[in-house]
């Protein structure tokens, strides 16, 4: 699979899936959260929202490096041949003020039912600046898309 095909598959996956598993680190252990997410069209950012008083937000403040897993499994036998799982590795930041409205618009376009949640004073808009995507297809084919978006590595065991 070449870079343009992988980028197209990532866009399709990120459009079709509403939830990601966010892995943070705190208290000397990993912590996973199911999160609504959206992606920027250039795939450089994944956008999330959370309440400031959550465990995950405290973890992010101390350890901003995170992983997010997005997949298209359906819990069917066919998943062993057809599922795509993508791990995004990156650092969580607050969007720059100049991008905050655009990021929120992207997020709410995908999740309009979360508008009230996002408007709460305790809600915070977060952006994962993706450094690398790791994609696995057929539970064995591995591809990596680096931050510079110039090279894909395909590794097979």
Explain this structure to me?
The chain is an alpha+beta fold and 157 residues long. It is 29% helix and 43% strand. Strands 1, 2, 3, 4, 5, 6, 7, 8 and 9 form a nine-stranded antiparallel sheet that branches. The chain is globular, with a radius of gyration of 16 Å. Mean pLDDT is 88; it is low at 149-153.
Question: What attributes characterize this protein structure?
Answer:
29% helix; 157 residues; alpha+beta; 43% strand; 5 helices
Q: Could you spell the SSE succession in H and E letters?
A: HEEEEHEHEHHEEE
User: How large, in whole angstroms, is the Cα Rg?
Assistant: 16 Å
Mean pLDDT across all amino acids: 88
Shape: globular
Oligomeric assembly: single chain
Termini separation comes to 16 Å
Structural class: alpha+beta
Name the helicity range. 25-40%
Hey, roughly how much beta strand do the residues contain?
Answer: 35-45%
Count of helical segments? 5
User: Unreliable stretches, pLDDT < 50, 5 or more residues?
Assistant: 149-153
How many E-type strands? 9
For the report, how would you describe the main beta sheet?
9 strands, antiparallel
Short description:
This protein has 157 residues and is α+β, with helices and mostly antiparallel strands.
């Amino acid at each position: 699979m070449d870079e343009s095909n992988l980028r197209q598959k990532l866009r399709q996956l990120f459009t079709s899936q509403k939830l990601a598993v966010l892995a943070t680190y705190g208290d000397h252990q990993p912590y996973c959260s199911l999160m609504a997410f959206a992606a920027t069209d250039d795939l450089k950012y994944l956008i999330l929202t959370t309440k400031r008083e959550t465990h995950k937000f405290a973890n992010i403040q101390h350890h901003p490096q995170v992983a997010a897993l997005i997949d298209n499994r359906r819990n069917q036998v066919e998943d062993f041949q057809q599922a795509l799982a993508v791990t995004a590795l990156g650092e969580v930041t607050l969007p720059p003020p100049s991008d905050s409205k655009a990021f929120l618009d992207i997020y709410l376009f995908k999740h309009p039912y979360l508008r009230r949640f996002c408007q709460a004073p305790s809600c915070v808009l977060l952006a994962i600046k993706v450094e690398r995507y790791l994609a696995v297809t057929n539970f064995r084919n591995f591809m990596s898309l680096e931050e510079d978006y110039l090279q894909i590595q395909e590794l097979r065991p």
